[in-house]
């Protein structure tokens, strides 16, 4: 007579060796509240984003399908020919700001995280965080009233000695209110957020990586090149793209420096400058009516698409570096 034994936890009648079915974890009330709140927050963000997109599309339809001869903003020209100079100005100003701000932000972040004494690093960190909270209108007032006149002699020097370069050709502006000034103001605005993010990413570099590089005889700068910068590459890209997103959507700082001229030019020092979509909307919206309002909302839709595309590219770049971690 043979007897069968069952393992502890195996259901009665099940053959020996059958794995125990997984048990559902008992959720505590706090876990359910937290998961529900997180799910609700994520859903709210998606609903809000979808609502904004639907609003822009619906309100923009008259600008695409209506008669442009009755549109006091388009004045008979097509919508694409009207919006293209503003798209160029938006991307051009943001790109210049990003090129100027990125190396400065990385340098400041490296100084705070790896070179400055602890007390000085703490003070600089607080100052950087406070600069990120300064309203954009303050930067705009400073850029238009103080910073622009200060740059006039520098622009004259650039035109005199580097005027053979197309970027610095043309007659320099006597007021200093140029696309380069607006870009430099944007660079100052995005500098704090880039610096703060890069600093936190640099501080997360595994200490074992840094100590291993120093133990092999590397100098501090060589250690940063071999251990810190490769580890923080995706974080630096994220910081740059986040700053670029803010520069693309900035309104008041550019509005107070540039005039709404719809043209395409690469000259940085002249008084005839391209302007950005947000600045054009802010300056033209008070006098807009009927289909003109739809036209300005349509330009906002284009800005929404450009910003969304920039963030999508940033996510793709970051995901390519996702396999690099402190455990590798």
Automatic annotation (TrEMBL):
Alphabetized UniProt keyword annotations: Cell membrane, Membrane, Phosphate transport, Transmembrane, Transmembrane helix, Transport
UniProt biased composition (Low complexity): 1-17
Keyword Transmembrane helix appears in the UniProt entry: yes
Chief location: membrane
Domain ABC transmembrane type-1 per the UniProt entry, residue ranges: 87-314
Calcium recorded as keyword: no
Membrane-topology annotation of the record: Multi-pass membrane protein
One Pfam family per UniProt: BPD_transp_1
Chain residue ranges for the region called Disordered: 1-27
Record-linked PROSITE patterns: ABC_TM1 (PS50928)
InterPro entries for the chain: MetI-like, MetI-like_sf, Phosphate_PstC, Phosphate_Transport_Permease
Membrane-crossing segments per the record: 33-62, 82-111, 123-142, 148-167, 179-203, 223-244, 251-272, 292-314
Domain of life of the native organism: Bacteria
Cell location: Cell membrane
Biological function: Part of the binding-protein-dependent transport system for phosphate; probably responsible for the translocation of the substrate across the membrane.
Sequence similarity: Belongs to the binding-protein-dependent transport system permease family. CysTW subfamily.
Protein name as it appears in the record: Phosphate transport system permease protein
């Amino acid at each position: 007579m043979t007897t069968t034994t069952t393992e502890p936890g195996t259901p009665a009648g099940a053959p020996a060796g059958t794995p125990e079915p997984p048990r559902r974890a008992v959720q505590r009330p706090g876990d359910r509240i937290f998961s529900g709140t997180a799910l609700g927050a994520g859903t709210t963000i998606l609903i809000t984003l979808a609502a904004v997109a639907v609003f822009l599309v619906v309100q923009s339809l008259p600008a695409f399908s209506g008669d442009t001869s009755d549109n006091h903003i388009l004045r008979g020209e097509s919508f694409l020919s009207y919006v293209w100079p503003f798209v160029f100005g938006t991307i051009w100003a943001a790109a210049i700001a990003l090129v100027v701000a990125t190396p400065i932000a990385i340098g400041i972040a490296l100084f705070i995280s790896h070179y400055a004494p602890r007390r000085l690093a703490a003070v600089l960190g607080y100052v950087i965080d406070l600069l990120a909270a300064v309203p954009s209108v303050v930067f705009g007032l400073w850029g238009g009233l103080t910073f622009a006149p200060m740059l006039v002699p520098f622009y004259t020097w650039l035109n005199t000695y580097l005027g053979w370069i197309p970027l610095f050709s043309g007659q320099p502006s006597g007021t200093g209110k140029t696309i380069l000034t607006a870009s430099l103001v944007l660079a100052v605005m995005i500098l704090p957020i880039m610096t703060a993010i890069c600093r936190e990413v640099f501080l997360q570099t595994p200490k074992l990586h840094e100590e291993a590089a120093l133990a092999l005889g590397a100098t501090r700068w060589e250690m940063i090149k071999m251990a810190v910068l490769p580890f923080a590459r995706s974080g630096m890209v994220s910081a740059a793209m986040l700053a670029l997103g803010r520069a693309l959507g900035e309104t008041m700082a550019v509005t107070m420096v540039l005039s709404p001229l719809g043209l395409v030019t690469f000259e940085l020092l002249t008084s005839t400058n391209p302007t950005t979509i947000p600045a054009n909307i802010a300056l033209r919206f008070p006098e807009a009516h009927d289909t003109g309002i739809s036209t300005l909302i349509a330009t906002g839709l284009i800005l929404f698409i450009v910003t969304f595309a920039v963030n999508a590219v940033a996510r793709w770049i970051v995901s390519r570096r996702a396999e690099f971690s402190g455990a590798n």
